[in-house]
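anyone seen this seq b4? input:
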Amino acid sequence: MSSTSNTHTSAPHAVGTLRSWLGEADRVLVAAGAGLSAAAGFDYGDAERFRELLPALHRLGLRSRYLLGAPLPADMMWGYWAVHIDDIRHGPGPNDLYQRLRALVGDRDHWVMTSNVDALFARNGFAADRVFTPQGDYGRLQCTVPCTRETWPSKPYFDRILAVYDRESGRVTDPAVLPKCPRCGAAVFPNVRVGPEFVDDPYLPAGRRLSEWLGAVPADSRLLVLETGAGFNTPGVIRLPMENLVRRTPRARLVRVNPDHPEVPSDLGDRALSLPCGAGPVLDALVP
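predicted toks r here
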């Protein structure tokens, strides 16, 4: 494995280099992890926001949205999912940070690959058919068996849950609205990758189109990989694949924007740029 470099260019110089690299790029691949959505206001570890959204669960001693293994009864767990996903996935308002990122990319030929399941790229100006989300999408549900490769839009289910959700108790007051697989009656779950039962069929076509786009890069083309917010929770989804992509693409460059883990592989030399900060300050400097 390649060693990493901990040497970071000064912030003003690094932003200037990023501006130059963007100007020289023929194609841009935006690669994003959870840190980007956290910078945009959707931090799963934000205890205060958790308390505001889910006071009943806060009183039980829970402090963050990372509840996959929490021993909650079904009515409370579905109350959590409905509130959480309605907030992060189905909110109608625009997001300033994502919109400024879209403005930064401009009219360059581009794609997005993200481990985030909140659809914030597609909801803020990026073409939905050019966003690859290999970890899934909160906008869909699936059977947990699964008895079928079919998935279903989540919003109608969550709208019904929220209509009978009691915020003070954290419970869904009508068990009839708790989702079940319409085919076999088994439990359903958000269509996100948590185990081998994950149904990835909705996302494979975009993955194939992205692979074809990358394969069609001319030898003399400049590909800029702009990676932001991708740490080590799931490094095999974004972080390591982006390093390997740049490593095997001679004229490609990697820009890694990350306040906690900005290190870049030393073997990439001057084709990798480390910005040890969040996406917000970078966009503040580049997009008025």
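The chain has a mean pLDDT of 94. The domain at 6-286 is CATH 3.40.50.1220 (Rossmann fold). kinda curious what u guys think
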